[in-house]
Amino acid sequence: MKSVTRWKIVETSSVTDESLEAIVNDWTGRGWTFEGMQFAMRESSKRPAMAFVTFTREEPEAAGQDPADPPGRGATPIT
Predict the structure, then answer these.
(1) Beta strand 33-41 pairing with 3-12
(2) Residue 74 backbone phi and psi in degrees, to 5
(3) 12 with 19: CB under 8 angstroms?
(4) With DSSP H G I counted as helix, E B as strand and the rest as coil, what are the percentages for the chain, rounded to 5?
(5) Contact 22, 11 (CB under 8 A)
(6) 18-57 b/e (C-beta count within 10 Å ≥ 16 → b)
């Protein structure tokens, strides 16, 4: 059976070690693989204003699904 890679992007404005640790532990505990973290900086501060934490997971491709048009494309809210 073919599989597809699904991405999960978690956005947070609480950029502390505790909150980032909680996000990584929560989503990896749900079966997602941590891929990376990107920070959005403020010009007036050395601390990041936001962080984007990315995860992936392999899922079986649904029968009859066009891989170029995954379900929920463009309609899935960021949580």
Answers:
(1) unpaired
(2) 80, -5
(3) yes
(4) 15, 40, 45
(5) no
(6) eebeebbeebeeeebeeeebeeeeeeeeeebeebebbbeb
**Structure tokens belonging to residue 73:** 């494309």
pTM attached to this predicted model: 0.74
**pLDDT tens for the 79 residues of the chain, in order:** 789 999 999 999 999 999 999 999 999 999 999 999 999 998 898 899 999 999 999 999 876 666 556 555 554 445 4
Structure tokens at 47: 């601390």
Which of 55, 54, 21 is CA-nearest to residue 39?
54
Do 1 and 23 contact (CB within 8 A), yes or no?
Answer: no
> Residue 32's closest CA among 52, 51, 58, 71?
58
